[in-house]
Amino acid sequence: MTTEVSKTLIPVEEIERNFREIEPALSDTEARLEAQRCLYCYDAPCTQACPTHIDVPAFIKKIASGNVMGSARVIFNANPIGASCARVCPVEALCVGACVENTLMHQPIMIGRLQRYATDHAMREGAPQLFKPNPHNGKSVGIIGSGPAGLSCAAFLARLGYQITIYEQKEKAGGLDTYGMAEYKMAQIDSLTEVSWIERMGVEIKCNTKVGTDVTLEELETRHEAIFLAVGLGATSRLHIPGEDLPGVYEALDFIDQVKTRQWENVPIATSVAVIGAGNTSVDAVTQAKRLGAEHVIMVYRRSQKEMPAYHYEYELAKSDAVEFQWQTAPVAIIPNADNSGIAALRCVRTQLAPAAGKSKRAEYQPVPGSEFEIPVQMVIKALGQQKRVSFLETIPGINLDPAGRVKVTPESMQTSNPKYFAGGDCVNGGREAVDAAQHGKIAARGIHFVMTGERIQLAGLDDFKFPIPLTGF
């Protein structure tokens, strides 16, 4: 069979059940009881573990006292995308993992679910706005990209009185939170609700607007006193093997994007699916393929299980969905079917540690001679990580990139080597969590404000304003 299917493999009703939220919202009673378990630690390790340093004990204590809107204010004051982060953050590796109640005798506080409870309440109430922006100060900032970094920077600058315009090349704003998160973690509507929340602060978002095509960099430089680059990453890296361009081969983010439309009859799926890679996006791909009705789903990874980039809890989720794992296995070719209309198999080779692997920071693997074998599949999903947007970034005069293609910035301000441009998120850190991007946006907002006004401001979740070297003005 080919992957050009016109109907789903299982009934739509079953798919809808499979894509229900893994962790549903807490009820009022559940939230109040869970909040009352918190010890409200001084110098709380959960706050330190959060990249945006939300005052976790403060927001939880407000839930316990019934001040849910006040709780949301604490969260959004440190992280404007706190609603989506409550759903997609790897809390087990961050705040929840640092909770002092995380012991053999006790369960850690459900910080992420409490954060969702408070932020959902605020979103539901709509008005009044939690923050009243300052009057317009006559200054304008352009932001390229509407993902977590761009939205965070926009929110803080709007509160400070700047006129903000975000330029987004896609049809909808929100970046990976809108297009790239597994639907059972966060529905697309939740991300778009958060986007509209930030728009109500006076932020203008121009979608279907590609910088360099629909608007030039020169035009942006004329319109705005400063520009923040939040362009994220680009296409999935290629395999560079025969058959990679066959029908039935998909990029993981394109596959997830189609899932998020919830138009199940149009989502490509096959009985047997192979996903290449072992990061968190790979887990999203294998679990969603399984929940769409694929009978046989295999994750193929050239390294060992212990070197898998995905978080442990993500791996456990994939195992619970009966995904098969092929460790130390590298693809060498995608085999077409008889009429070249699709895929017949994925040809792989076993790998082993290279002789000099012990001397390197990361173990290197090499093919095992004579170990080739084929996995019968009709669909292959590539989840190898994304490429840097080097070709676009190199069009910006004076922007310096590191050898890996990431934008070089001054960490205290996120200012680039071109003083008019600031940058943050994946284009700077190479691809981390949404909450890391949100922190970059906040730091950049403070840096932009300082360069424009000379005023040193304190924002929630940031250390005292200290720059070891003077910032470059315009």
Write a concise keyword list for the protein shown above.
single chain, 474 residues, alpha/beta, Fumarate Reductase Iron-sulfur Protein, Chain B, domain 2, FAD/NAD(P)-binding domain, 3 domains, five-stranded parallel sheet, 18 helices, 14 strands
Secondary structure elements and pairings:
Layout (H helix, E strand, L loop, with lengths): L11 H7 L9 H9 L8 H5 L6 H9 L3 H11 L3 H7 L6 H4 L12 H15 L14 E5 L3 H12 L3 E5 L8 H4 L8 H12 L4 E3 L10 H7 L2 E4 L19 E3 H9 L11 E5 L3 H12 L4 E5 L11 H9 L3 E3 L2 E8 L6 E11 L11 E3 L5 E4 L2 E4 L7 H4 L27 E3 L2 H4 L4 H20 L21
Parallel strand pairs: 1-2, 1-4, 2-3, 4-14, 5-13, 6-7, 6-13, 7-8
Antiparallel strand pairs: 9-10, 10-11, 10-12
Give a description of the structure:
β6, α14 and β7 (296-300) form a beta-alpha-beta unit. It contains 18 helices and 14 strands. α4 (56-64) crosses α8 (111-125). The protein has helices spanning 12-18, 28-36, 45-49, 56-64, 68-78, 82-88, 95-98, 111-125, 148-159, 176-179, 188-199, 217-223, 252-260, 280-291, 312-320, 390-393, 426-429, 434-453, and strands at 140-144, 163-167, 204-206, 226-229, 249-251, 272-276, 296-300, 324-326, 329-336, 343-353, 365-367, 373-376, 379-382, 421-423. Helices cover 34% and strands 14% of the residues. It folds into three domains: 37-125, Alpha-helical ferredoxin (Fumarate Reductase Iron-sulfur Protein, Chain B, domain 2); 140-234 and 387-453, FAD/NAD(P)-binding domain; 249-382, 3-Layer(bba) Sandwich (FAD/NAD(P)-binding domain). It is globular and about 65 Å long. The protein is of the alpha/beta class and 474 residues long.
